Amino acid sequence: MKVTEHIQNANGKTLFSFEILPPLKGQNIQSIFDAIDPLMEFNPAFIDVTYHREEYEYVEREDGLLEKRVVKKRPGTVGICAAIQNKYGVDAVPHILCGGFSKEDTENFLIDIDFLGIHNVVALRGDAVKTETYFKPEKNGHAFAKDLVEQIVKMNHGTYLDESLENSACTDFNIGVAGYPEKHMEAASLEQDIYHLKKKVEAGADYIVTQMFFDNQKYYDFIEKCRTSGINVPIIPGLKPITTKSQLSMIPHRFKVDLPNDLVIAIAKAKDNKEVKEIGINWCIQQSKDLMKNGAPVLHYYSMGKSEVVKRIASEVFKD
Ligand code: FAD
């Protein structure tokens, strides 16, 4: 079923979902099942699987010269999605990027997942790779997520790049896109970012999933601004429980989101990461309960493979 159909069928009840990362290359898919199994009792409506493009590394050769090598650290998004749908019967939502994909690669990726019975995707631009200062699209690829959404919508209407596919059946993807309650790091202002978010929705995005936030008021203000600007699709809040002290600096640095002062002070006072984890879990439980009370369609957890943490939260929030 499509993500937006899950939301419609829930009749206002808040759904549970989460995101997982493919395991590091060389590891076993069992680690994915081990992360999902404890969360199945909360009936996830869907499970997102992130996509990780290849990175470039400079490796010293025997002759002393540096050679640029391609490394893909977390392959397997498509295979994991297929395995999830087969094993659990839960809708899997692969993320797909502009970065690293030509338009032909995108078409082939979408044909693959369509064959596997996957009908949900989150369309993203992706970040710059480590060797770039700014994001660079692939040759004959897309520069912005909006352009990727347009290509998916065209396929949903039976228009393929490969003209020999002209009479093929249309795909039927439900499309999610990213939204940023505290604005995307490259956007000049939140208003500009919402302007571009609206373009993604006008291009055909069916729903929005937000970047993590730790102050619910930021999400409520974001929703109000989106609605005022004419964005009417569901906006799913993304939630991440803090579990280590180092995340106090890592999260604002990497994701450009603020942490509320009360949370920072409580974590700074904690004597070890065991205590930090308790504070992070309790904070996330309070956030979740408040979001649920205020009608969030889905609570979407960035689990990062820490299912015991998400389980603790879901046990409190999704009791019935
Ligand atoms: P876009 O919507 O294309 O926006 C990028 C920037 O360009 C924004 O600042 C926007 O305001 C601006 N912009 C948009 N259109 C225009 C235009 N026409 N002209 C000028 N400026 C414009 N990354 C991964 O690598 N893998 C993942 O699986 C992944 N999953 C994610 C899931 C979620 C829910 C979120 C919130 C992020 C995820 N990311 C992932 C990170 C994401 O790829 C980055 O945040 C990326 O920098 C932006 O992607 P986007 O789709 O929001 O880009």
Structure description:
With 320 residues, the chain is of the alpha/beta class. It has one domain: TIM Barrel (Alpha-Beta Barrel), CATH 3.20.20. The chain contains 11 helices and 10 strands. An 8-stranded parallel beta barrel has the order 1-2-5-6-7-8-9-10, surrounded by 5 helices. A two-stranded antiparallel ribbon has the order 3-4. Strand 1, helix 2 and strand 2 (46-49) form a beta-alpha-beta unit. It starts with a helix and ends with a helix. The structure holds flavin-adenine dinucleotide. Flavin-adenine dinucleotide is lined by residues 50-51, 95, 97, 122, 124-127, 144-146, 178, 184, 186-187, 192-193, 196, 200, 209, 211, 238. Residues 50-51, 95, 97, 122, 124-127, 144-146, 178, 184, 186-187, 192-193, 196, 200, 209, 211, 238 line the site of flavin-adenine dinucleotide.
Q: Summed up, what is this model?
A:
With 320 residues, the protein is of the alpha/beta class. Helices cover 40% and strands 18% of the residues.
Structure keywords:
single chain; 320 residues; alpha/beta; TIM Barrel; 8-stranded parallel β-barrel; two-stranded antiparallel sheet; 10 strands; 40% helix; 18% strand; globular; binds flavin-adenine dinucleotide; NAD; Mehydrof_redctse-like; Methylenetetrahydrofolate reductase; oxidoreductase
